[in-house]
Amino acid sequence: DTAVSQTPKYLVTQMGNDKSIKCEQNLGHDTMYWYKQDSKKFLKIMFSYNNKELIINETVPNRFSPKSPDKAHLNLHINSLELGDSAVYFCASSPRGRSEKLFFGSGTQLSVL
Amino acid sequence: KQEVTQIPAALSVPEGENLVLNCSFTDSAIYNLQWFRQDPGKGLTSLLLIQSSQREQTSGRLNASLDKSSGRSTLYIAASQPGDSATYLCAGAPLSGGYQKVTFGTGTKLQVIP
């Protein structure tokens, strides 16, 4: 069973479209994250939710809107996609507390044409 | 603002060699430091996590050390194997301002040649 699963794995779309990426974790973790990995493989945090509450919102365009219907799910909706949004988006989760490891999904490669 | 650097960006070694990957961070006020491996087209897998109060952690052929005073962590891989080929990333969690704001390094791409 996959611990952190995200769909779709690949997403190819035109500029201006709206798309969503879904993430689910079956680890019982309280905290979930969205990370963006750019073309240079640099990983940067975008959002973090703790038990459905937004706790981190880094400098991300407001075209990106996370939604957490319950603590096992964290979806990412992107409006009006731009070329610069092309990247790999990773979902991750961790248990409550500072000392625990991050568990990552396998990523969604978004290509905006 | 925390900055995490990994040098070298790429490393190629023959199978069986022992090797060290380096991670430097600018802000020593970290709560923990993690080492991850990333295989092509895959997510990150956590290898080792070192608490700020610890000096090292070991798992099998892997040993990670942490020296907060110098802002450095190393990942030692013993008797490297072709299956170790991957990109290795280190990441530090801050002591304050939200432990979730983990900062990742730029990664070292390791190739172990049979």
Topology, element by element:
The complex is a heterodimer of chains A (113) and B (114).
Chain A: E1 4-7, E2 10-13, E3 19-25, E4 31-37, E5 43-50, E6 53-57, E7 64-70, E8 73-78, E9 87-94, E10 103-104, E11 108-112
Parallel strand pairs in A: 2-11
Antiparallel strand pairs in A: 1-3, 3-8, 4-5, 4-9, 5-6, 7-8, 9-10, 9-11
Chain B: E1 4-7, E2 10-14, E3 19-25, E4 30-38, E5 44-51, E6 56-59, E7 62-67, E8 72-77, E9 86-94, E10 103-104, E11 108-113
Parallel strand pairs in B: 2-11
Antiparallel strand pairs in B: 1-3, 3-8, 4-5, 4-9, 6-7, 7-8, 9-10, 9-11
Would you mind describing this structure in some detail?
The complex is a heterodimer of chains A (113) and B (114). In chain A, 0% of the residues lie in helices and 56% in strands. Chain A has strands at 4-7, 10-13, 19-25, 31-37, 43-50, 53-57, 64-70, 73-78, 87-94, 103-104, 108-112. In chain A, strands 2, 4, 5, 6, 9, 10 and 11 form a seven-stranded mixed sheet that branches. In chain A, strands 1-3-8-7 form a four-stranded antiparallel sheet, with no helix packed on it. The mean pLDDT of chain A is 91. Chain B contains no helices and eleven strands. Chain B has strands at 4-7, 10-14, 19-25, 30-38, 44-51, 56-59, 62-67, 72-77, 86-94, 103-104, 108-113. In chain B, 35% of the residues are buried. In chain B, strands 2, 4, 5, 9, 10 and 11 form a six-stranded mixed sheet that branches. In chain B, strands 1-3-8-7-6 form a five-stranded antiparallel sheet, with no helix packed on it. The interface between A and B is medium-sized, with 27 and 24 residues.
